[in-house]
Amino acid sequence: MATRHDPSARATTGRGWALLGLILGVLLALSLYAPARWLAAGLARWSDGHLQLVNARGTIWEGTAGVVFASGAGGVESISLPGALSWTLRPRWDGVAATLRIPCCAPRPLQLNARPRPGGLQLTWQDGQSRWPAALLAGFGAPWNTLKPEGVLDLSMQGFTMQWSGPVLRLTGRATLDATDISSSLSTLRPMGSYRIALEGGPQPTLLLTTREGSLQLNGSGRWTGRALRFDGEASAAPGREDALSNLLNIIGRREGARSIITLG
């Protein structure tokens, strides 16, 4: 006996497929043409307002924006980088490849791969160098907004990876920050000195602060616990520079005679 098909059932099925196709089309359009301001909003939430993209234009996948470092959501301290950031994001089978062009601070584009991980995210940075104005640190609030540093920060990374697992951040590879000709509004000495911070990742990441040259001597070491930085160091003035640096030494640490003891975490 021949099977009889209900025309109303076929119509219902057809409408179902049409609706599914419409939904998939909308989702694809959103993913391809989602505005850059969505990325800006997500980055601001993720960084608690410390890193902001302003006047974002384009799409999530390719766009431009100004970059502002701020002391947090609603914070009064903020520093804008000169020029604009442009970015390109490309999906990969295991995540997203990003290219960041920052003419003010990096002679070559910065590249990284973002990969989702169970309970978190992994960022793998391509080896490279960049140069940043030390003044941007004031945008992060205390104590930088009091010190108001000036000078140049040269950052280099080798095999550097950041992996978040919930609130825990694991670091591998090496990052070196050379702070050159640093000065502060709290001292008449300009510059006060040049310094190096070396971060070595691994199971127990370590940080080493040394003075390359200058009247303000800074030295110390620390370790990253996965949630916070534990650091112990000291600051002192070169012979003949004690009076010019006394006010600064009183603020950046706990005075013990001619030294200022710095403890974080």
UniProtKB/TrEMBL annotation:
It comes from the Bacteria. The keyword Cell membrane applies. It is found in: Cell inner membrane. Pfam families: T2SSN. Keywords: Cell inner membrane, Cell membrane, Membrane, Protein transport, Transmembrane, Transmembrane helix, Transport. The chain crosses the membrane at residues 16-36. Its main location: membrane. Belongs to the GSP N family. This is Type II secretion system protein N. It comes from Variovorax defluvii.
